[in-house]
Specification:
Ribosomal Protein L15, Chain: K, domain 2; Four Helix Bundle (Hemerythrin (Met), subunit A); 2 domains; four-stranded mixed beta sheet; 10 strands
Length: 296
Amino acid sequence: MKIIEINKNNVYLCIYRGFLQIKKGTEELGREPLADIDSIIVSGFSIRYSHNMLAKLCELNIPLIICGDNFMPVGYLLSYCANYEHTGRLIFQIECSLPLKKRLWQSIIKKKITNQKLVLNELGDEAKDFSRMVGKVRSGDPDNLEAQAAVRYWKRAIGIQFCRDFKLPGINSFLNFGYAIIRSCTARYIVACGLIPSIGLHHHNKLNPFCLADDIMEPFRPYVDRKIIEMKVNGSMELTPANKKELANLLNERFVMVQERLTLDNCIKQTVLSLLNSFKYKINMIKFPDFYDKRS
C-alpha cells in the first residue's frame, strides 16, 4: 500500500500525464504515478490544488486526507461512489470480534511494557519485575498491568518526585508534545488506510475522534520517553522551538522492522497496515519495530 504524504509548504499539486506532480513555482519537486497511489495525506501549509487533480482522485478512488494546524486529520475527499476495497476495510473493522480486540490490546500492552523495560535497562535498571509483568498480561489486560507498570516506570525512569500530569510544565510539556507527534502520525495513517479512527480497540470516548490512534500509539510512547531522557530535560526547562524540532525529528530516526531499517514514521505506517491485516484476516497480526536499533 503506497501512502503519499505532502509535508512541504507552498506547493502546487496537479496531474501530468498520469502522474501526481508536486511543483513549487516552475520547479518540479517530484512526481508519483497515480496507478501506484492508495491515498494522499496533506500536512503542509498553503497547498494549492488543480480542479482536474481533485476530480481525477475521485475518479480513481484515491482518498485525499487534509490535516489541520496540529497535523491531525480534519477531513478528507473521497469519491461519491467509494470502491469496494474502501468499504470492505470499514466492514472488516466494524465486524472485528471482541476476542480479537482483546488479543490485539494484549499485544499492544505487552509491547509497551517491554519497551518501558528497555528504557529502564538503558538507565542501568534491570527491571526484572517488568519482564514478569509482560508474561502476566492476559487477553484484554483485565488486571490493568499497564497502569501497574506506569506507576513503577515513571518513578524509576524520571525520578521519585516526578508526577505525570499533562497540565504541568517542564518534562510534562516535553512529553505532551512528543506524544502529540506520535499520535498525529498514527492518526494520519489510520485514516489513509480507510479505517475509522473513532472506533478503538480499548479506548472508548464519544468525544474522542481518534480512539484507535490512542490505542496503537501506546508502544511508541517509550520512544518519546527515551528521547527526552537523552535530551537531559529537567523540571525547569522550557519547551522551545528548537526542542520541538528535535522531538519531531524522532520520526526520522531508524529502527528495524519487517527485516528493514525504517524511519519511525514508516514503522508506524507498517504497524497500522498490520492492524488492517488483523481486521481483514480475523487474526492477531499486529507488528511493532525493534526498540533498540537506532543506527542511522
